[in-house]
Amino acid sequence: MSNGLVIKDLRVSIGDKEILKGINLTVEPGVVHAIMGPNGSGKSTLAHVISGRPGYEVTGGSITFDGHDVLEMEPEERAAVGLFLAFQYPVEIPGVTNVNFLKTAVNSLRKARGEKELDPMAFLKLLREKAKALELPEDMLKRQLNVGFSGGEKKRNEMLQMAVLAPKLAILDETDSGLDIDAIRIVAEGVNAQRSPDRAFLVITHYQRLLDYIVPDVVHVLAYGKIVETGGADLARRLEKTGYAEYTPAA
Amino acid sequence: MPSTIETVETVQELTGAYKYGFVTDIEMDMAPKGLSEDTIRYISAQKNEPEWLLEWRLKALSLWQKMEEPKWAKVDYPKIDYQDLYYYAAPKKKGDGPKSLDEVDPELLNTYEKLGIPLKEQEILAGVVAVDAVFDSVSVATTYKAKLEEKGIIFCSFSEAVHRAPELVKKYLGSVVPQSDNYFACLNSAVFSDGSFVYVPKGVRCPMELSTYFRINAQNTGQFERTLIIVEEGSYVSYLEGCTAPQRDENQLHAAVVELIALDDAEIKYSTVQNWYPGDAEGKGGIYNFVTKRGACRGKRSKISWTQVETGSAVTWKYPSCILQGDDSVGEFYSVAITNNAQQADTGTKMIHIGKNTRSTIVSKGIAAGRSDNTYRGLVRVLAGAEGARNYSQCDSLLIGDKCGAHTVPYIESRTPFSTLEHEATTARISDDQLFLCRQRGLSSEEAVALIVNGFCKEVLQNLPMEFAVEAQKLVGISLEGSVG
User: Fold this and answer.
1) Cβ neighbours, 10 Å, residue B8
2) B463 with B434: CB under 8 angstroms?
3) What per-residue confidence (pLDDT) applies to A96?
4) From the list B440, B451, B455, which residue is nearest A79 (CB)?
5) How far apart are CA B325 and CA B382, in angstroms?
6) Which residues in A lie closer than 8 A to residue B447 (C-beta atoms)?
7) How is chain B split into domains, by residue range?
8) DSSP per-residue letters across B107-129
9) Could you tell me the domains of chain A?
10) pLDDT tens across B173-204, in order?
11) Closest among B267, B206, B270 to B233, alpha carbons compared
C-alpha cells in the first residue's frame, strides 16, 4: 500500500503541556508539502513524533505511512519503511567517519528490508556518485561525522545521507536555519534533484525564503498546535508579507 | 567458592559409587589443595624443573607469606581463601568438558556466532574437544616452528624454555618483575603454571605475528600464567595474547605475570584482548584477573608498545608498564577497558622515565555501562637523570546509563625540570541525540552503541594488528549488549 503519510487528529504532549492539539495531514507520494508557522507552534515536535524521537507523549490520534502504524514502530523500523528526518542540529559522532556511518546505515536498512548487504566496493561507488551530484568534496566523506563541520557542511551532509538512503518521505526540519543564502541554495538544489514521483517531502520552515528554491505543492500553516490554513505556494508568499500575526492562540 | 573446587566437589557427590577411583584420578592430576612448600615441590617436580627454579619458587613463597593483599584498587570482591585453591592441574583430558556443542550454553554459542568464529574453533573454545582432536597440531606447530627456527627465534611454552634455553630464563626471569614486586606477582612466582617464552636474536624481524599459533596452542596454560619475551639488539616482535571469544575457564582467580625485555633498538609490540567470563548480571562466578605486566626498555632507542582491549572478567587489576631505562627509548600504552553489569576494572599504566630523552604516550579509553565501575590509574614518573623526557597522557571516559562510574586517578611525579608532561582527560556520555540520529538512519540501538563506542575507541583499536582489530570491533559491540534500554 503506498498511500503516503496520513496523520489523523494527532495530539502530543511534553509533560503536562499539550503541544499538538489535533493535527490532520496527508502527504501523498511524490508531493512536496511545506509546513510554516511561528516559533513554538509545534513544527519540530511534529517532525520528531513522525520519526519516533523519544520524549514525547502521544495522547491521541494516529499516524500511518503506506499503511504501517507508525506510532507502534521503533525509530529504525520507521527508517526501514522509508521515513527520513533531516535534522535541524545534526549531532557529532567523534571517531566515526562519514563513510562508515553511512555504510552501516545503508546495510542496516537493507537487512531490515530483507535485501542483501552492499559490499564495500558497491557502496563506495554509490556514495561517490551521490557526493559528486551534491558537489561534496571527497575528503568530507573521510571526516568524522559532523565533527568540525560548518553549519552549511552539516546540512549538505544531511542531504548526502538523504540521497544515499533514498527515503520515500523526507522530512526537513528547519534545514535552512543558520544557513546563509548560498548554503540554502545548495541545499535546495540537493532537494530538487531528488524530487521524484515516488519521493515525498515535508519541508518545515519558519521563513518563506527556502520555499523560493524548493517550490512546494502544498503549504500548511501550523500555529499553536493546529493547522490553521492550507493553500498553494502563494500562501507562503503572502505570509512573507503579513507574517504570522493573524493567527492568534486558539481559545 | 572457586569454580574448580565446586566442580570437583559436585562431581564427587554425584559419582558416589566411583568416588574412590575418581579421587585417585584427581590426586594424580592435581596438586594438593592449598599453598605450602609441598605444593610447590609438587608443581616443580611435575614439570621436571631444575633445582634453581624450585629454589626460586620457594623463595617467592616465603616472601609471599609475609605480604598483605593490596587494598588500594577501586575494586570490591569477597575475600579469597588462598588455602582453599588448587594450584596445579594437569591439562584437561578429552571427555572432561561438554560432549558436544549441544551441551554448551547457547548464549556462549550465540556470541561465537556474532564474532564469526569458525565451528571447529568454537568447539575448542567451549572445551568440547582438545586441540589435537581438531587441528593436526603437530604439523601446525612444526610448520610455524620451522619457519621461526630458521631465523633463530625461540617460541615455546615457558616449561619447555626452562629446558631449551635455561641460561636465558635464568638471566631474565624476575628481572623486570621481581618476586617481591607485589602480592599477586609474588604468588605467581611461587606457583606459576605455564605460559609463553619468546626469544628473538640480534637483528631479526619476526616474520609473523605470534598469534595464530598462540590461539590454537595456548589452551590450559592455567591460571598463573608466566610470559617472558626477550628481544635482542635491533630486533622486532609483535605478540598477540588472548582471544576475542569468551573462553570456558574453571579457574576463578587469575594472576599472570608478563615480563618484556627490549635491548638496543629493539621493539616489542604486545597486544591483548581479554574477554574472560565476567560473571552473571550480578557478577557472580566471574574471573578475578590480577595481572602484572611490565616491559623494560633496557637498550637505547628501544620501544615497547602495549595495546589492550579489556572487556571480560568480573574484577580486573592490571597496569601494563614500561621502564624507560635506555636513552631515547619509547613506551606506549593504548587501552580500551569496557565494563558492563557488575564488572569492575581498575587498570592503567606506569611509565618510569630513567634514560635521557625518553618518551611515552598513554591513551586510555574507559567505557562504563550498567552498574559497573571503571577506573584509570596511572603513574608517570620522571627520575632526576631523565632530561628531555616527554609524556603525553589522554584519558577519556564514556558513560552509558546513569548507574555506572568512571574514575581517573593519574599520578605524575617529575624530578627533573627538563621534562614535558601533558595530561588530558575527558568524560562524556552517549547522548540521546546521538542514539536517535543513528536509529533514524536505520541502526538498531545496539548497533548504534557499538558504532559510537567504536568511534570513541578508534585511536586504540587502530593500533591492534589487522586480524585482531576486526574481531575487537565486534567484541566492543557485543560486550555492551543490553546496556541501553
Assistant:
1) 19
2) no
3) 94
4) B440
5) 11
6) 104, 108
7) 130-430
8) HHHHHHHHHT--HHHHHHHTTSS
9) 5-242 (3.40.50.300)
10) 999 999 999 999 999 999 988 888 999 999 99
11) B267
Nearest CA in chain B to A97: B455
Contact B444 A76 (CB under 8 A): yes
Q: How far apart are CA B293 and CA A117, in angstroms?
A: 42
* Cβ atoms within 10 Å of A177's Cβ, excluding its own: 15
Which pLDDT tens digits describe chain A residue by residue (251 residues)? 678 999 999 999 998 999 999 999 999 999 999 999 888 889 999 999 999 999 999 999 999 999 999 999 999 999 999 999 999 889 999 999 999 999 999 999 999 999 999 998 999 999 999 998 888 888 889 999 999 998 888 888 999 999 999 999 999 998 888 788 888 888 888 889 999 998 999 999 988 888 989 999 999 999 989 999 999 988 888 888 888 877 766 54
CA distances to A61, B97, B215, B248, B280 from B125, rounded to whole Å, are: 53, 11, 10, 7, 19
Residue B121's φ and ψ, nearest 5 degrees, are -70, -35
Nearest CA to B339 among B250, B427, B278? B278
Cβ distance A108 to B458 less than 8 Å, yes or no, reads: no
DSSP B315-331: EEEE--EEEE-STT-EE
Using CB atoms within 10 Å of the CB of residue B466, give its burial: 0 to 12 exposed, 13 to 18 middle, 19+ buried: exposed
Task: Report CB contact under 8 Å: B440, A80.
Answer: no
Q: Are B133 and B171 in contact (CB under 8 A)?
A: no
Q: Which helix (H) or strand (E) holds B151?
A: none
The whole-angstrom separation of Cα B19 and Cα A60 is 69
- Which of A93, A109, A110, A142 should we substitute to test contact with B (largest number of B Cβ atoms within 10 Å)? A93
Q: Which residues touch A250 (CB under 8 Å, ≥6 apart)? A: A21, A224, A225, A226
Q: What's the DSSP call for residue A188?
A: H
CA–CA distance, B478 with B263 (Å, rounded to integer): 39
Residue found under cell 546509563: B401
Grid cell at residue A42:
509545534
How close does chain A come to B313, measured CA to CA in Å? 27
Alpha-carbon radius of gyration of chain B: 22
CA atoms within 13 A on the CB side of B269: 14
Q: Which amino acid is at A227?
A: I
Query: Which 8-state DSSP code applies to residue B9?
Result: H
Q: Write down the H helix ranges in B201-348.
A: 212-217
Secondary structure (DSSP) of B311-379: ---SEEEE--EEEE-STT-EEEEEEEEEE-TT-EEEE--EEEE-STT-EEEEEEEEEE-TT-EEEEEEE
- Element housing A86 (H / E): strand A83-86
Q: Which helix (H) or strand (E) holds B170?
A: helix B166-172
State the CB neighbour count (10 A cutoff) for residue B415: 12
* Residues B194, A64: Cα–Cα separation, whole Å: 64
Angstrom distance (rounded) from CA A98 to CA A114: 24
Rounded Cα–Cα distance for residues B199 and B197 (Å): 7
User: How much is the average pLDDT of B226-252?
Assistant: 80
Q: Which long-range contacts (CB under 8 A, 24 or more apart) does B103-111 make?
A: B103/B128, B104/B128, B104/B248, B108/B246, B108/B248, B111/B245, B111/B246, B111/B478
DSSP, collapsed to helix, strand or coil, labels residue A14 as strand
Quote the CA–CA distance of B4 and B26 in Å, as a whole number: 12
Q: Choose among B434, B442, B459: nearest Cβ to A109.
A: B442
Task: Residue B449: list chain A partners with CB under 8 A.
Answer: none
Nearest to B172 by CA among B276, B248, B258, B55: B258
Helix or strand holding residue B30 (H, E): none
Quote ipTM for the complex.
0.94
